Amino acid sequence: MLTINEMECALRNLCAAEHFSFDIGLRVIKVVYTSRIHRHPAIVNEKFSKEGGTRLHCIHFPFTDLDKVCEYIAQKVGNLSGKTVQFTSTHKDSEECVRIIRDTLRVKMERVNDMRCHVKGTNFLLSNILDEVFVYDHHNVDCRYFFQTCLNSPHSSVYPYVLVNVGTGMSIVRVNSESDFEYIGGSHCGGGAFFGLAQLLIGSADMDELLVMAEDGDHRKVDSLVSDIYGMKYEGLGLPPDLIAGSFGKCSNTKFADQVKNDPDYRKDCIRSLLLMISNSIGQVVSLVLNNEKTNRLFFNGFMVRNHPIIMRTLSYAINFWSKGALQAHFLRHEAFNAAIGAMILGKERLENHGEVDIEKVSWREHYAGCSDLGRFVPRRPTDAAFRGEVLELDCADILMRPFPLLSPSVEYDPDTVDLNSDLAAREFWLTIMEESVHKMCSKAIESQHDSPTAAARADVVAKKYLEQLKLLRDKPFAYGTCNVRNLLDLREQIFQEHDFDDPFKLQKKLENDLAVRELPKVVTKLDGMDDVRERLAEATKGLLAGNVFDWGAKEVVKLMEGKEEFTFQKAMDVVPARPWLNDDLDEFLDASMNGGHKSIVVFVDNSGADVVLGVLPFAREFLKLGSKVTIVSNLLPALNDITFGELIQVMKEVTDRDELLKRHTEKGTFKIMHSGQGSPCLDMRRVDSELCKAVLDDKVDLVVIEGMGRALHTNFNAQFMVPSLKAAVIKTRWLADRMGGDIFSVVCKYEKPIVDLM
Amino acid sequence: MLELSYSLGGFPLNGVPLGLKDEEDHTQSFSSTPSSSSSSLSSPSSISSPVVIHTSSKGRILTRSVSHFDESKSYTERMDELLLSSSLRRENTLDGKGNDFVTKRTTSISGSRGAPFIVLPKEERFEILREKGRFAVDIGGTLVKLVYSSVGPPDGDGTTDLLLNFRKFQSIEYCIDFLKDVWQDRNSECYLNGTGGGSFKYAELLQKELGVKVKRTDEMLSLITGCDFLLRNNEDESFTYHHEAEGLERYQYKPIEEKAIYPFLLVNIGTGISVLKVDSPTSFSRVGGSTMGGGAFIGLGNLLTSARSFDELLLLAEKGDHRQVDSLVSDIYGGDYDHLGLAAEVIAGSFGKCSTLNHRRAQGLCEDAKEEDIAKSLLLMISNTIGQMAFLYSNRFEMRRIYFGGFFIRKHPISMRTLSYAINYWSKGVCEALFLKHEGYLGAVGSFLDMTEEQKKE
Fold first, then answer.
1. Which residues of chain B are within 8 Å of residue A258 when distances are taken between CB atoms?
2. Is residue B111 scored above 50 in pLDDT?
3. Number of domains within chain A
4. Which of residues 240-299 of A touch B (CB under 8 A)?
5. Which of A8, A73, A607, B152 could lock onto A611 through a cystine, CB 3.0 to 4.6 A?
6. Is the dihedral of CA B323, A206, A144, A118 positive or negative?
7. CA A509 remoteness from chain centre
8. Residues A434 and A487 in one domain
9. Are residues A559 and A593 in the same domain?
10. What is the pLDDT of residues B11-69, one digit of tens each?
11. Is A414 part of a structural domain of the chain?
């Protein structure tokens, strides 16, 4: 039974809850609700800033706790009466549950077709959660999970895909588009047969128990193997002796069947045989049905499959075997919630109620900090009992995010340079550095709210939580999907925000911006005084790199900045080593720029202060002088000392008052600022603001500049674009310098032309 | 893990009292009182009975054979014998119209003791068998199938037919006893043709006990050769099942022109299942299979019911009501599931109701599942899956005719109905499930036809 404490951990922010939907299953019930959350206003564009946000809470709890959960919700949520709650169900006994929900919450109940819910919900998960999809490789020792992200992009579509739902039976549905799907096959030999026959064979249908047994059992004691039929004289036939010829074949001998029941291992042996028989059969039927399908995107759903390594393993094997490698079984991290989310999306009342977010029209992001550890997908043997494990939270981005349209279609984009799932040394380094830095981060956070009496206590909670999460990641690095630097940093940001530290570096950033703005004329005057255009651009590029030395996110730099002497831009220029740099494509870059190769450029910027004001703006000015269009792109939401869109607007106001050239181009529209929609020290090109995507195409951007370690080294270092790109950063950590074969403050200036596809 | 052997039987192993009483009687009688008096090459069981050659035509059903049946036998057994011995309504497969089809070549005939045989066609290659009989065994995972030649009784004009006799045994020992008795003129120069997994496993035993050489024939090739031979030479070899009809009308012969035999899909159901794509007698491949076949049915049946044999299990299944243990569409949706076009009666999940048995029993909502309901559900689950799989393979290779072989079906109406229904349902009427009178003997017949050793001698 659930405790109040457990419910508090899972069912959060109920006082601001708005809409509910339920998915009523035989063993577990899933509830999904939206709530309003307090959030620092984010300036989305000059006209529109968003106060607060919407969160989607998805919770998974045992069937038997329905009464308790409903009462808890009713008590916390205030008045829901008159509202409609959507539900979907795949069993007849749901009437009793529906009554409990209706009477306890005093709401109207609306049933939604379960298949439509599955499809809608799966569409939603695929298009909003990164690394949602994974394939299971049992024989990979480092990591058995290989994650993928399926998003709609200009070059590829998630449709069509095939959804196989293994519940009581098994159904195969092809999803052709957002709303169009068709049933293409199914079987009544599925989860029901497994649990039903298990119940009949050994008197238990407890999933946890059965799956543990199946892991331990030896099916060879009840199945007929090739060796049983051929004796040990099958050489030359090419058949492995352990191959199953007939499930339960040995038991077809009555005497044997009578005796085997007394075998101490009988229960687990026959459960394993049963599991193999049924998952093989499912795998075979699915691969046969899909034989003529155009897609090999095949997702398995349903309680039978969910997080159960042995089933994922046998299904993956069977699909690969029967399709001769043409198909691969894919699984979803959060498929447990797809029907409940689908029901929420399909609810009529909510859609008709204007002024609320249309769940499907905006993007959502996984709110790691709110998901309880297991809910974030940690495959495990025991299941339903682990209540705490069954929470997923998603934050509404309030905007629509799309893949950056200039990504090369011929190279698969993976934002992360290092995959911490497979790179153990890198994982250890990053986890350690994150652990070490958390207290420093917390003191910054307390400083940013020095007038708040609760700040210190909250910061302690943040540190504690983050350290717990890091510990979890040490054990199970695949808890977030692919473990990488990006989501380690994102997770930290989220936990800070969760505890009302919207922006720990707010004061610091303001201070540095003001300083830099005052400094800017000096830097500009120096550049403007140079006659040679090429030399000037070279100097501006060096300035771009020097600016990037200023970074509160890097330990080595913090030492410099906190040192006794003032750390000036000129000092930063001196820190930049002499050429040749670690990656030195400066000449190629200059050549291309001089030849008028870059008519429209977009620059993804990094830190506030000297970085953006003294590094990026003078660089941009040089291109404006060359007659190019320039767009500067910042984060939307705060992350470390990275400049946010709101701050950038403020900075530009002040700068254009002093800088004639920037003012003129701003008015002309040849210089503008935009945001990526993100709030991370890294940059994930799979999801940027759709407005930016549109602008990049409208402006015919022909150079993508990415600056900073987070955006150009930890992520995007290997990214390929359809247009030339410049990745510029200064290496500010010893570890990365060692890895890349350079020294601290080594310079990366990587200019790449698109790989031309010669048909 | 998934591979299967090619030709597997579907019967319980040694010492199980099976429903095939006549055979059991024989094996017992041979082991206790060897009938040394019988002529060495004659079938001891069928020689005494009058040979009836059926020349049936559409609409004329010969019920005469039924009178031979021992009333104590189960419906399944009787049906098995009936189909092996009588002629039914015939339909020409080629034009789809029911034709009066006069038997031209060979017809099956049967003795009262139920050990069936067919008359071998009058071909040069078989003449040698008048002097010396030939024996072939197909030793599967659970059953031994034997075919052997004998000379039939003289006709009115003094000519004799060569007969091919069919026998099955639950264990290799019974088979050896039988062979020792019937095969009197064997010597160390003789060959016993053998196929199936057991021809590897028991080769030494056979050589030692019988004092003959064992000539192994390729399993798949034997299966196909046997199937080809029977389809070509026994007009009434294949039939379809029509549940909507009454009595024997449910069975319809499907003779096929020699030139129209290929291609076809052969689904051999033994301990496991093999699916063979057959393009010609020499060109075929194993395209798939499954571990969920006869072994799973009998094995799970043994673990879950009190049935002591395959036939008892089938009898239980006949009495059962799967709706008591399966989850139907109506159990989930309260009625039809229009969105997917599924009727309320459709099984959504086999044994679905059993998974909550503990829970429901605790609430006093139900009693234990009845064993006959379990048997029925098991039979439906396995035969439906086989049917679906067979259709899916036929669809993949664009085959319209699917023959079922092996010992699982046993001309059992539920199995045939389920398989026919599944094939018809999934293929929207395009494909046809065809059953074979000698379904269990295909491999043995094929092995029998391998005459390389005799030819070498000549």
1. 302
2. no
3. 4
4. 240, 242-258, 260-261, 270, 276-277, 280-281, 284-285, 288-289, 291-292
5. A607
6. positive
7. 28
8. yes
9. yes
10. 222 222 222 222 332 322 222 223 333 333 333 332 222 233 333 333 222 222 333 33
11. no
- The one-letter code for the residue type at A545 is L
The token pair that represents B7 in the structure block: 């030709």
The pLDDT, as a whole number, for residue A163 is: 95
Compute, in degrees rounded to 10, the torsion defined by CA atoms A518, A519, A520, A525: 120
CA–CA separation, A260 and A105 (whole Å): 52
Q: Determine the Cα–Cα distance for residues A99 and A92; give it in Å rounded to an integer.
A: 13
Identify the band that residue B103 occupies on the pLDDT scale cut at 50, 70 and 90.
Answer: very low
Lookup: tokens for A285: 């039927």
Question: How far, in whole angstroms, is CA B187 from its chain's centroid?
Answer: 32
Q: What is the mean pLDDT of residues B403-411?
A: 83
Given A332, A363, A378, the domain boundary residue is: A332
CA gap B309, B314 in Å, rounded: 9
Model ipTM over 0.85: no
Structural domain count, chain B = 1
The DSSP 8-state label assigned to residue A722 in this structure reads S
Range of the domain at A602: 513-752
**pLDDT tens figures, A240-253:** 778 888 999 999 88
User: Which residue of A189, A224, A244 is in closest CB contact with B2?
Assistant: A244
B151 token code pair:
């000379």
- Residue B34 carries which side chain, given as an amino acid letter? P
Q: Are strands B191-195 and B135-139 parallel, antiparallel or unpaired?
A: parallel
Q: A640-695 pLDDT, tens per residue?
A: 889 999 999 999 999 999 899 999 999 999 999 999 999 899 999 999 999 999 99
A490 pLDDT higher than 90: no
Domain-embedded: residue B312: no
Local structure of A732: helix, strand or coil: coil
A518 CB neighbour count, 10 Å cutoff = 12
pLDDT in the model for residue A475? 80
Tell if the CB–CB gap between A243 and B3 is shorter than 8 Å: yes
Strands B273-280 and B213-216, by their bridges, are unpaired
Q: Is A26 on the interface with B (CB under 8 A)?
A: yes
Helix-strand-coil split of chain A, %, nearest 5: 45, 20, 35
CA distance linking residue B9 with residue A752, whole number of Å: 67
- CA-wise closest residue to A585 among A618, A629, A538: A538
Torsion over CA: A602, A605, A611, A612 (sign): positive
Please count the other Cβ atoms lying within 10 Å of the Cβ belonging to residue A192. Answer: 32
**Do β-strands A391-396 and A53-62 pair in parallel, antiparallel, or remain unpaired?**
antiparallel
Is-cis flag, bond preceding B121, omega within 30? no
CA quadruple A276, A277, A283, A287: dihedral sign: positive
Interchain pair B203, A168: CB under 8 A? no
Cβ A224 vs Cβ B3: under 8 Å: no
Amino acid at residue number A211:
L
Q: How many CA atoms lie within 13 A of B301 on its CB side?
A: 35
Same structural domain for residues A448 and A547? no
What is the CATH classification number for the domain harbouring A607?
3.40.50.10880
